[in-house]
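Aim 2 progress. For TetR/AcrR family transcriptional regulator, the working sequence is reproduced below.
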Amino acid sequence: MYPRANFPSEPAYPMERKPPRRTRERILALSLQLFNDFGEPNVTTSNIAEEMNISPGNLYYHFRNKDDIINCLFSDFEKEMEGILGSPPAQASVEDAWFFLHTLYEIIWRYRFFYRDLNNLLANNRTVETQFRRILAQSADVTRKLCEGLRSSGELKADDRELEALTTNIVVVATYWLSYEYVLNPRQFNDQAKMSEALSRGVYHTFTLVAPYLTGDSRALFAKLAGEYMK
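Predicted structure tokens for this construct:
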């Protein structure tokens, strides 16, 4: 029902030329692209200004420093995450849980530098440290509610302790999947086809944590979805 993911390589900010975007928006778009492609620690404000073909002074007119750029990108990332975390379905199904993971990984892919460079960002940026912890808590809450919904509808069988462990495991795998893939294939991290496959695997492997707890038709539905998604 949900086709294999096609995780795009373009930045979250659209590149339309009509109407022309303001310099501030163009700086954010390019910064996201550079951070995603090369890693945030390897990109300086001078690199961004040079790629923009503007002076460093012009860049600093819009942003005080690189952390200011990162914080603005993180604000946009939070808004996208709120879209999926803010309104979990009241009555969950296997398809709802699958769609949740699919959408979550799409957002992770668009802002992948946050996940690839997470430890460095947490150590050096207080805003990211504080807000990312809140996002993790929200992710766990929504994941727990989805699992509880599956349990209440009879699609999942787990006691409270197992359900809590399942919630934690799903959040951990989703958070660190890109880091795992980067360690496996650091020189192919910017290859769109390779990383599209990697993110598809991430969705599948994350959901396999749920699979052992599914019952009856729900287990068969998971197998069907996985077969279609991983073709």
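The chain has eleven helices and no strands. This observation will guide construct design in the next reporting period.
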